[in-house]
Amino acid sequence: MRKNTREVLEAWNKKQSCNKHNAIKTDGEISKVVDTYLNYWETGIGEILWPSTESAPGDSRVKLKAVRIVSNGKVTRDVDIDKDFTIEADYLNLEPDARRLVSFHIVNAMGTTILTSANMRSVSITPDPWCTRCYPKGEFRTSCTIPGHLLNNGLHSISIYINVVGAKDNIFFVKDVLTFDVKETDLVSQEFTRHVLGAVRPRFDWKTIQIAS
Fold first, then answer.
1. Which string of DSSP letters, residue by residue, matches 19-83?
2. Domain 46-191, CATH 3.40.50.620 — does that match?
3. Are residues 57 and 64 in contact, defined by beta-carbon separation less than 8 angstroms?
4. What single-letter DSSP state applies at residue 84?
5. Please, which residues have CB within 8 angstroms of residue 160's CB and are 6 or more apart in sequence?
6. Alpha-carbon distance 124 to 163, whole Å?
7. How far apart are CA 207 and CA 76, in angstroms?
8. Distance from C-alpha of 196 to C-alpha of 183, rounded to nearest angstrom
9. Local mean pLDDT, 10-residue blocks, the chain (213 residues)
């Protein structure tokens, strides 16, 4: 179900909380409001960099250097719905002998959290050995591969957490750090006359058998 105008505006205003003068304050047709909201999301090239540690998110323990989307071997904000893609986070660990935990949250353009995941053993197909190790000082990259045919088409955003060990000991959190667009396939456009409903769109095992004549 699409959000009403008030809900869309509230979501927009939350994004603009760093500058209240930029928040939308007038109501209007829902289609125009949604278009304005989505236009806010449609910026970027699939990567955000912080060349200076002074301006980067984090503190004296960890500094974020970059977040990017990689698909088909290149950095991009456009992801084919049937292809795997990888979210990468580069960061500097400035505190020796301390543990780090990285998690990503994916939200669709209507503000619904689609999934959250982290490099913890309980949610990793292939365990990340650094999840349980103490980090030395240095630069690290933590990545997560999202399988094709999981997300529905449309705009999505990524938020990133870096914690010490668990969910309650945040070092920093960056909301909507990057946006990407899941692109439709030609096959679906041939078989469907409208947008396929749902926040996710995995493939399932379907079959039909004749049980009587």
1. -GGGS------HHHHHHHHHHHHS---SEEE---TTTSSB-SSEEEEEEEEEETTEE-SEEETTS
2. no
3. yes
4. -
5. 64, 67, 89, 102, 103, 104, 105, 173, 174, 177
6. 17
7. 36
8. 12
9. 44 44 42 49 78 93 97 94 96 96 94 94 92 96 96 94 85 94 76 76 92 94
| CB contact at 8 A, 86 and 143 | yes
Contact predicate 89/128, CB 8 Å: no
CB 101 within 8 A of CB 144: no
DSSP state of 191: H
Q: Which amino acid, 4?
A: N
8 A C-beta contact, residue 79 and residue 183: yes
Judged by phi (left if over 0) then psi (alpha if -120 to 50, else beta), residue 202 lies in beta
Query: What residues does each domain of the chain span?
Result: 1-41, 46-191
